[in-house]
Amino acid sequence: MTALDPTTAADPLSPGGVDPVLDPASARPQRVWRQLHRNPKTLVGLLVLVPTVLVAILAPWLTPYPYDQVYVGEVLGAPDADHLLGTDLNGRDLLSRLIMGTRVVVGIPLVVGLLTLLIGVPVGLLAGYLRGPFDAVAMRVVDIFLSFPWLLVALGLASVLGAGLSTVVVTLVVVYWPQVARVTRNSVIAVTEAEYVKAAAAIGESRTSIVLRYVLRNAYFPVLVLLSSMMAFSILNEAGISFLGFGIQSPDTSWGLELAAGSTYLSAAPHLVVFPGIAIVVVVLGMNLFADGLGDLLSRQGRNR
Amino acid sequence: MTETDVTLRVADLRVDLASGAQPVEGVSFDVRQGEMLGIVGESGSGKSMTLRAMSGLLPHGVRATVTGSVTVAGTELATASGRPPRHPRVGDRAAFGYVFQEPLAALNPGFTIRRHLLEALRAHGRLGDRSDRHDRLVAALADVRLPEPERVLRSHPHELSGGMRQRVVIALALIGRPHVLLADEPTTALDVTVAAEVLDLVQTLQREHSLTSVLVSHDLSLVAQRCDRVLVMYGGEIVESGAAADLMTSPQHPYTQRLLEATVDPFDPELRRTPDPEVESRAPLMTAGGVTVTYPARRRRQDPVVAVDGVDVAVRAGEVVAVVGESGSGKSSMAKALAGMQPVDDGDVRLGGRTVTTDRRDRTWLTGEVQMVFQDPYSALNPRMPVGTAIQRSLAIHQPALDAASRREEARRLLDDVGLPRSFEDRYPVELSGGQRQRVVVARALAAQPRVLLADEPTSALDVSVQAQLLALLRDLVDRRDLGMLLITHDFAAVRAIADRVVVMSRGRIVEAAPIDDLITTPTDPYTRRLLDAVPSARRTHTTQEST
Question: How far A45 CA sits from the closest chain B CA (Å)?
């Protein structure tokens, strides 16, 4: 009976045997590397994101000039050996300003992402698990919030809070949390139907325990994927809001602000638009690739067969 | 066997997947004109892959190279593209007709049966003259013995029963006048009595149309009963082939022997179970008295559906009571009522002096008394929780006095109890086979130290050899721990293997309740007899004569 011994019989349903990615026995660094190798999107995304974060952290030490130092006589200067990316309207070094702007590019998605999760996930989780009146009310509120155009929200908030970083953050959280709530709810509903959630009730798990240990643990992947692409969009939105003048104000800096300031002098000093533009495109692309790769990875891991 | 006799010849068929796996490793066989060949094997044996590869129906998206030759009625099917063409034709007839496992999946829910048949006629270039087209459609349905073919033509798939759908699928398969009818687990999704009827039909059609057919199944006794010759597949190869009768009486290959050993024939007289008088004298542990479960009507002015209608069941410590019935018999609703997962409209379920309710405040008590083993081990475990943790969760709820270290130790002991190595505690469900997962589910149930185990079709998702092991484990646990067990199933082989008493349900009522030996040898209710007659068995012949 050896071949039918339950402990040694290979799983007939997965001819490949144990999945090396999911096998906790295989060493961790090796596992991560294999995953990245199989999934070049994530790798490329990381190649963009990791340096960006490093630059943001080390920004004050990396800038060749103080970012708000005005060099009179070098207004709208083209890139040269002294100012690698040229100078802006006020004669400030563009490279230094972009390097400082990296802090906004890294900070905004993190703060917005965190706040969005803190509001959207609990609402979606309760709505999806409890259903009934709470679900109905919560989802109507979500519908109302979803119908706000971000531009209008920014305009309204700017008149209350004044233009600045806080307006950007609050606008984005107001615009994003309903999406997170809705995706969480739908994912929770799908997971709650699963047999293992009923099985959890059958072994006597409490409702809190079912929600946290069984439902949330299996429902968060779509939320994570949404969140990572939302974080990429938040960079674009920040640029947009700052471009319109509701966001960050000079002498502080962000990539969107530089783009906006430069757009007036497109023909005289194209470098003011080109370099911030390239920076935004590269980082957003990197984040999107990373988000995409993460989605692939998680959808593979979430399976039960 | 002369060359002209051979309708289907498969020579050295190989399937190489892009992933490097070889699900089919050089399979060769002949099927004679008018013969029914059976292919038996467990999941992963390559039996379905063989059928699909030779007929050009590999699942969409599977990147594979198919080599070898497939000859139908003397014509070799083109394999230039590395896989046989889809819907190959030989002469003016289709090479193959297909009948698949799940009839509902084979039919388009938005099309009427008429449209399905018309599509099939068109695909085979047999639309023909408009004037007699309707008559030909009716004839096609009458051919598969569908009653009221006119009404069926107008119906959508969801309006038909499972058996009727499968007849429609067979009718569709026959429209291209195939040389060979390929049937892959055609009755697995059907109730036993319906399954028997469908197979009877295939055999009748085979005689009438002198059809050649290949029947793929995991069920050795079914194949042996229906087919002339049987191939046994294991690991992508044919390990044994021969006449069905020879295979059943003197299997040569060790795998066939094991398979045969694991196949319980409910009518095997050697399986007689001697009742333990000590157990029989015990007072019942759990008693259901006059339990009635109704579901509200789906539409207004319809009567509510009575799923369970005044059912009495009792189970003692140390015995296994089987509740047997076909789908719709109310056995699953009964199980839910017993587990306190379904409110009871009338009657009550009593356990240890208390009444079972759906009240949330009673859950901890109830789940400490009654634990369940679920039908599908693939979905009963949290995919994100290592199996050791899954067992420890149950311990944390029902034995709160244990500290983390002793919980861990106890979980390991439970793994021992269900025959799994302790090293499995860190594994995730996806790394375990179906049988192993079901053992984890059992261990998790035992962690609550229940007195009653409720098993709802615990083996139906498992391979035959694994089924036998799991049933043996359950019986052993019942005996060792003096558990009372209710086994809800449609499978008489499982019942025969471990049950002491049987309750047969039909349309929400109990039609017969008897000790297992009496039920098998002298069933009194006509419905029970029909159920037993439908069970594929090599040994039944004399028993039915006794009973009918």
Answer: 26
